């Protein structure tokens, strides 16, 4: 399939698909006319990339772990998968995500407290 079809099937803009290619996350073939040609499996791969980006992972980390992901929940282990450097990156990323979760929880609690206080004033 060409890039426009992949975009329609995934909801990811063609500009972003080209960016994924630049970041070495997608690897389309090239037709004789130079057009990008994606296999059907690219739909799942793009959805996987999108989900990992949405979870807060950087393209650098995604590029390093993507070869070891079978699908949305599948991971196949490989002896070269978890280097000390990658383990450090993932641990730092997990801590950064936890800090975001903590901040969001504080903001949620503050909003709920504000709503409760305003509702009490109206009674």
List low-pLDDT spans.
none
Shape verdict? flat
Q: Classify the beta-strand content into a percent band.
A: under 5%
Please trace the helix and strand order, writing H or E for each element. Answer: HHEEHHH
Helix content: 55-70%
Q: Could you tell me the number of beta strands?
A: 2
Describe what you observe in this structure.
- The protein is mainly alpha-helical.
- It is 62% helix and 3% strand.
- It has five helices and two strands; from the N terminus they run H-H-E-E-H-H-H.
- The protein has helices spanning 3-10, 14-22, 42-54, 59-65, 84-122, and strands at 29-30, 36-37.
- A two-stranded antiparallel ribbon has the order 1-2.
- Strand 1 and strand 2 (36-37) form a beta hairpin.
